[in-house]
């Protein structure tokens, strides 16, 4: 599969015991306690499998980087070139040339990208999992940001998406703007020379700068520019790899939703078909 990462890179299935509280009060209490313990064990098994998947992704990503480096010269050179000044003149040709040099498929490239984030989350989450064990679900609402993605259950993902879209709507409301893909696609990765309003609007739409900034202050302009540039570099490379390896129509449902989230497209309360249509508009 060139476009979609394998199933094991996603969160494993979480199977919870069925609720059954019939009978006298004493029996109900025993059944409730028994089910509570079973739920904790189910979550523990879910998290353990998720941690194994993350570690397997990290090891696979190392092999993929080594293969890319051996055959072409690595991915770091590609990232640097995408953000170079020459790209402003060469346009999409530079991205196409870089994609031609990448021996990895889009699925493999995504594994490398995703493992870079989860490898930093893994030690913290594994430590908490070892400390709390079956009781980890009781604190997961406060530690979602350090939970690797393959360890997040669907409710955690939905909650994170709602917060992300609410944050985007709030930022755009401050700017008195609405979402528009054409604005994003017109902003070049060389954002330093662009107008401040365009960069700030793209930053708000793509949720480019880390949310932790908002606890302290509005991020400085150069931070916003750097975050937008980095985000656009990622999107342009991903767009080119998707086009090279079969096109957006070949993305599975999970990848379509993820691609929409990456591009700032609203996914909350949208059907898979609506998300595909929004992605079709992005790719034109």
TrEMBL record:
Chain ranges of the Letm1 RBD domain: 135-284
Coiled coil: none
Subcellular locations according to the entry: Mitochondrion inner membrane
Organism, as annotated: Sporormia fimetaria CBS 119925
One Pfam family this sequence matches: LETM1_RBD
Topology within the bilayer: Single-pass membrane protein
GO terms, biological process: intracellular monoatomic cation homeostasis
Entry GO CC: mitochondrial inner membrane
Keywords for the protein's UniProt record, in alphabetical order: Membrane, Mitochondrion, Mitochondrion inner membrane, Transmembrane, Transmembrane helix
The name this protein goes by in its record: Letm1 RBD domain-containing protein
Main location as per UniProt: mitochondrion
Highest taxon, organism lineage: Eukaryota
UniProt xrefs under PROSITE patterns: LETM1_RBD
GO molecular function: ribosome binding
């Amino acid at each position: 599969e060139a476009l979609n990462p394998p199933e094991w890179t996603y969160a494993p299935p979480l199977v919870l015991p069925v609720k059954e509280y019939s009978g006298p009060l004493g029996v109900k209490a025993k059944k409730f306690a028994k089910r509570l313990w079973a739920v904790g064990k189910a979550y523990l098994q879910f998290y353990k499998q998720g941690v194994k998947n993350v570690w397997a992704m990290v090891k696979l990503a190392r092999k993929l980087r080594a293969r890319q480096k051996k055959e072409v010269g690595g991915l770091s050179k590609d990232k640097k070139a995408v953000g170079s000044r020459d790209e402003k003149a060469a346009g999409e040709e530079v991205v196409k040339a870089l994609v031609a040099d990448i021996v990895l498929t889009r699925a493999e490239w995504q594994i490398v990208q995703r493992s870079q984030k989860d490898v930093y989350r893994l030690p913290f989450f594994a430590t908490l999992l070892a400390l709390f064990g079956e009781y980890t679900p009781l604190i997961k609402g406060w530690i979602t940001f350090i939970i690797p993605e393959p360890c997040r259950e669907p409710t955690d993902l939905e909650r994170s998406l709602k917060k992300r879209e609410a944050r985007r709507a709030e930022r755009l409301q401050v700017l008195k703007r609405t979402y528009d893909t054409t604005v994003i696609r017109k902003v070049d990765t060389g954002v330093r020379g662009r107008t401040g309003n365009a960069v700030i609007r793209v930053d708000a739409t793509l949720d480019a700068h880390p949310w932790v900034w908002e606890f302290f202050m509005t991020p400085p302009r150069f931070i916003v520019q750097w975050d937008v540039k980095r985000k656009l570099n990622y999107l342009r490379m991903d767009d080119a790899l998707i086009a090279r390896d079969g096109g957006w129509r070949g993305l599975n449902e999970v990848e379509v939703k993820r691609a929409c989230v990456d591009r700032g497209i609203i996914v909350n309360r949208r059907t898979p078909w609506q998300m595909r249509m929004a992605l079709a508009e992005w790719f034109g």
